[in-house]
Amino acid sequence: MTGAGPSGGQASPNGTQRAVVYAGPGRAVVGEAPMPALETRAAPGVLPRRCDHGAIVRTLATCVCGSDLHTLHGPGAAEGMVLGHELTGVVVETGRDVERVRVGDVCSVPFNVACGRCANCRAGLTGHCLRTNPSRPGATYGMGEGFGGWAGMQAEYALVPYADFNLHVFDDADRARERLLDVAMIGDILPTGYHAARSAGVGPGSTVYVAGAGPVGLASAVACRMLGAAAVIVGDLNAERLAHARAAGFAAADLAAGELPEIVAETVGVPYVDAGIDCVGVSDATVAAAGAGGGTPVAAALNDVIGVVRHGGAVSVAGVYPAGAPGARPPLGVWLGGIWSKAITVSSGATPVRRYQDELAAAVLLGGVGIADAVRATAVPLEQGADAYEQSMAGAGRKFVLVP
Which InterPro entries did the record assign (predicted)? Predict the structure, then answer.
């Protein structure tokens, strides 16, 4: 077992590192956080546990995700907890039970914290692991105790439990470093888009409508293209995002310019598509208002998708919809009558990232899939993490990648 600290040597004397942390509702700041260890102590949003099966990873790139913005408004965030769940890095320490992963490996970390051993993990449902979250099935880094109590990854170093299972090790480390912005998308956003497209039955000749021209929507559009879709229409209200979608080669639907069925018909000849993907979910502003008693989240984008999917078609929900408190059933205004009457198949839930990483890594490194360009991946220093959050919350059409 080999240890390493912020400069690749020993850990810093005070045992802290620089990280993006939660600083109250709607606020992320760059501050100090505990250095990760194989035996974690209780900390904001972190549960104590020992991880002899884990590894410590030095960060090469860590991303800001739309679901991180939800965390800033969610009730489960604890002040001082490290945010983030998308990491590409280098292994610097391994636990005594780790056999496959080696110090020096360049790797991608799935956002799902999964044991690889339970019934759900064995079935490929790593987003619903039965062992990594004492509260409920499924765990994610950087989202607080309700999501398993694992420290976030927008930091210089991070702990990855069950390292032999969770870490995708790149066969060509030099190539992975050269295409760092592309491989940074393999821990979450590209698998999320790919899973959404596959779940919606996208294949050669398919017509698809994607709600949302943000990074997840564009990743979904890229995945649809990879799977052979004949036409992909990306809808949004943000002019900057729509302009980029057009520049990336997709049809763009300006939802402020007309009725969606008519816009769809202009592209595919009929007012419906084979498959729809909702990459919007519930907006952060609506979540914040609902959490404060000021409103009810509404599934407007999802209803748009349902409205333009053909009878017998399929809808995949990649956007986040909060479950609420245990036992709560918050009304979302989903058009269930449209789903039922049109016999639409619906799939949803957290993406089982580990299921897809091998093939997507090959698609990026060998097949040349330019996912970084498609989502406008923008590298910024970790110290500018707070600004990256502010720009993301303001609707910037970019995927920010924090580089320590």
Answer: ADH-like_N, ADH_Zn_CS, GroES-like_sf, NAD(P)-bd_dom_sf
Q: Which residues pair with 155 in a beta bridge?
A: 19
Tokens of 315: 């809808």
* CA–CA gap between residue 19 and residue 28 (Å, rounded): 10
Question: How far, in Å, CA of 138 to CA of 320, rounded?
Answer: 14
Q: Indicate yes or no: pTM above 0.90.
A: yes
Question: What is the average pLDDT across 198-214?
Answer: 97
Task: Give the count of beta carbons closer than 10 Å to the beta carbon of residue 339.
Answer: 17
Does the structure show a pLDDT above 60 at 382? yes
Residue from 34, 32, 37 nearest 21 by CA: 32
Could you tell me the two tokens for 186? 């393999």
Rounded to the nearest angstrom, the gap between the alpha carbon of residue 22 and the centroid of all alpha carbons in its chain is 18
| Measured distance CA(65)–CA(152) in Å, rounded | 12
The beta strand positions in 11-51, using DSSP E, are: 16-22, 28-34, 39-40, 49-50
Contact 185, 378 (CB under 8 A): no
Helices 215-226 and 239-247 meet at what angle, rounded to 10? 20
Strand positions, DSSP E, 95-240:
106-109, 157-160, 168-169, 207-211, 231-236
Nearest-10 Cα torsion for 394, 400, 403, 404? 30
Query: For residue 298, how many other CB atoms are within 10 A of its CB?
Result: 16
Over residues 185-200, the pLDDT tens digits come to 999 999 999 999 999 9
Lowest mean pLDDT among 5-19, 109-123, 294-308: 5-19
**Residue 159 in contact with residue 37, Cβ under 8 Å?**
yes
Instruction: Outline where DSSP puts E strands in 73-125.
Output: 87-94, 106-109
Residue 184 gets which letter from DSSP? G
- The span from the first CA to the last CA of the chain, in angstroms, equals 24
**Cβ–Cβ < 8 Å for 332, 282:** yes
How remote is the C-alpha of 56 from its chain's centroid?
Answer: 21
Q: Give the sign of the dihedral formed by CA 380, CA 383, CA 384, CA 390.
A: positive
> pLDDT band for position 331 (50/70/90)?
low
Alpha helices by DSSP H, 179-299: 180-183, 189-199, 215-226, 239-247, 260-268, 284-291
Quickly tell me which residue has 């799935």 as its tokens.
Answer: 110
Spatial contact of 295 and 289, defined as CB atoms under 8 Å apart: yes
Cβ neighbour number for residue 289 with a 10 Å cutoff: 15
